[in-house]
From TrEMBL, chain A:
GO CC terms of this entry: plasma membrane
Organism: Halanaerobium kushneri
Pfam families reported for this sequence: ABC_tran (PF00005)
Family listed: Belongs to the ABC transporter superfamily.
GO molecular function: ABC-type amino acid transporter activity; ATP binding; ATP hydrolysis activity
The name this protein goes by in its record: Amino acid ABC transporter ATP-binding protein, PAAT family
Keyword field: Amino-acid transport, ATP-binding, Cell membrane, Membrane, Nucleotide-binding, Transport
Membrane topology: Peripheral membrane protein
From TrEMBL, chain B:
UniProt topology in membrane: Multi-pass membrane protein
Subcellular location: Cell membrane
Domain ABC transmembrane type-1 per the UniProt entry, residue ranges: 16-204
NCBIfam families (UniProt xref): HEQRo_perm_3TM
Descriptive protein name: Amino acid ABC transporter membrane protein 2, PAAT family
One GO term of the biological process aspect: amino acid transport
Keywords annotated in UniProt: Amino-acid transport, Cell membrane, Membrane, Transmembrane, Transmembrane helix, Transport
Amino acid sequence: MPTKHLLRIENLHHSFENEEVLKGISFSLDKGETKVIVGPSGTGKSTVLNNIIRLVPPTRGKIYLEDTEITSAKNINEIRQQIGFVFQDFGLFNHLTAKGNVMIGLTKVKKMDKNEAEELALFELDRVGLKDYANSYPSQLSGGQKQRVGIARALAMQPKLILFDEPTSALDPELTGEVLKVMRNLAEEGMTMLVVTHEMGFARSVADELIFMEGGNIVEQGDPEKLFTDPDHKRTKEFLFQLTNLYGEGEK
Amino acid sequence: MLDIFMEYYPLFLRGLGVTVFVTIISCFSGTVLGTFLALGKIYGNKFVSALVRLFISIIRGTPLLVQLFIIYYGLPAYGIRLTPIIAAVISFIINSGAYQAEYLRGSIQSISGSQLKAAQSIGMTKWQGIRHIILPQALRRVIPSWTNEFIYMIKYSSLAYVIGAKELMTEGKLIASRNYQFFNVYFIVALIYLVVIVIFVYLFNKIEKKVTIP
């Protein structure tokens, strides 16, 4: 099927034990787009992201990266190199410096020359505002700094898109801003991003499309402004109203 | 006592040399063996994991001395004849490997599973993740237990004297049977063990500090 979509998800199902957490999710992502998935906890938002890079293999359904069907692809490690992943708990390698964290994928996975990898690592750290912390270990960094290293690590692999799994949920409120700012810049630079978050301000001002999920289904998706002000479904309105009250409108 | 040491120090030192050699080889090779056993137990399939479990319980469940005798006195029946030192080293490696496997298993499992997930997310294979992300952290954490193992091994290596490997204890016994100064000779032997162990512990503590992750 000819397609211009960068990422296409078709009828994705996922079951843990006997519980079906994803009941047929379909959406697509074009190059340069930022889509934000929101929804109550336990709705399967993170499972969608984990299914995409097969950290958790999907039960059923198809996922395409450009024209390649990746749910059953054998070379999953090559596919993962093309899709960045930013974890809620940062997932930094504790025995490596910030620079080491960014470099290791380049040297060990991409087999890049060490000097070249170091140069690229410093460039990416600079991009997230952490050039001065290149030699710090994760334990010496704040949560916001750790997450920015996590983003730099994903960026260094030069992925086609980056998945963000609640990137600010583990952060103190005053530290979320620095991470969101980096993400905002990436979106403006044309990075393709799929973001699971509760940050309504970010969703409203950065997302090209908002996807509201509940109970393993997509309830509604579309222009964020429309979903916030005039959604088709009552549940969308209730949920977004609740979250906006809870987290505020955030920085716009 | 000093006069005894001065008279026989070449023998004491030769014995010490063998003791330290046997210990270092056994302990380091034991670490390599233990690492593979631990990985087999944690990441291996059902068959591998069960095999490792069986091996560890046999080795830990039988006396080192018996293992030593089987290898030195038992194997010749199957045409395998080993020198005392080689037989000692092999049985120590097997024994230490089984114990170290358990230390390492604990250490590996104490590293959060999300580290491996993160490694795979940037395209590492499971093996690359284990090698470059999990093991460097797990091996650091195991150093205190490893130091303990090394101390045990220096002392347990004295068991090799029963098969005639010329380590420190054997040399001591030979000297004592020559001059009948049992108390003095064995006191010197004990003192040598003590000094050597204190030195190694100091060294390993230094190394541990040096490689600690901030």
